[in-house]
TrEMBL record:
This is MFS transporter. Coiled coil: none annotated. InterPro entries: MFS_ArsJ, MFS_trans_sf. The chain crosses the membrane at residues 20-38, 50-72, 79-99, 188-207, 228-252, 258-277, 298-318, 330-358, 370-393, 399-419. Keywords: Membrane, Transmembrane, Transmembrane helix.
Amino acid sequence: MNQSLRAPGRLLRQYMVVTAAYWAFTLSDGALRMLVIFHFHELGYSTLDIALLFVFYEFFGVLTNLAGGWIGARYGLRLTLRSGLLLQVVALLMLAPVAESWPKLLSVVYVMAAQALSGIAKDLSKMSAKSAIKTVVPVAAGQEQQGERTLFHWVAILTGSKNALKGVGFFLGGAALFRLGFAGSVSAMAVGLVLAWLLTLSLPDAMGKMKQKPAFAAMFSKSRGINVLSLARFFLFGARDVWFVVALPVFLEMSMNWNFWQVGGFMGLWVVGYGLVQAMAPGLRRLWGQRQAPGPGAVQFWSAVLMVVPALMAVALWRSTVPGATVQGSTAVILGLTVFGLVFAMNSSIHSYMVLAYTEAEDVSLNVGFYYMANAGGRLLGTVLSGLVFQLAGGGAGGMAACLWGSALLVALSCGASLRLPRPRHSPA
């Protein structure tokens, strides 16, 4: 068979391997988050203590994305993906011996170190998978608009499926803690990731590698589009995690008296639905008559819509007349989460496409790494604020409402930043 005919099939197989490995990692990542939150909350840790357990996870994600893009461009995406999977295995095995009898300070420091490895692993894997799309969906000369629509479609599928599986991971984390205990759960996940790592042995060394070795300074983006979009992404993901990471699961457990199964299942279903909407974003835009790939206007519109949602949720909680678990508060959180998930999914899907629209295949891992550095920075900000604001506001409905007001403010900042986005080269708007 002609080499030119074999090439698309070979690229597709490579992408399928990358995606399968990323899916496996995502399941473990979602499950681990629920395991850590519930396990340490049961041990009597405050929400701020739990938030601190994730600080290194997010902080090292910032550093990893910055350096990881440069490593991927210089040495190939195969190396970064395989390294991410192995580091997650090490992080999981580190957590297995943690016991209730350990001194609290030792437990916190030790788990923070394991979470640091997990954060490095997560962002190496994410950067590798997201960058791989650009290498297998090239935009041919004379077919730019079709190529950009195809790119948007593939980005939406990867991003949406990843988040759907992360939601499944949330559910599995709550279920595994109930059935296997903390040590048994992390050990089982480590075995699964070793099997996923074996899949990546078939990937070529040169995948994503630049022809000319980039200098270390190249990891800082010089593109206005990437820089502005990264700033908007920073605030966008801070707006999600300020209430989602710590405040929400603790609120559901303490104020609404939900058990681990219910909290893990609810949050899992929310993330699954959020992921499905992300995957369907191109189709939904076509239903609304938007047949071209999205541009800056789409980012600005969906950011403005999103800003209203947490503010309305906060008002509904504030107006709840009965402290703790009220029907009004419960309804506000559940319905508000559903709307927030739908709108945030459209935002995130369009953002994930735009970063690739602003870059070329040759330097994709550098720009994607810089962009997801900002993403990790926003998660870090949101994680710390989630535990801190919830605790300072007294927990319960008041603490949750305070976190939601913080979310509305951060979305407003993201929307303001997006007003300065330039038009991508192939974007119609």
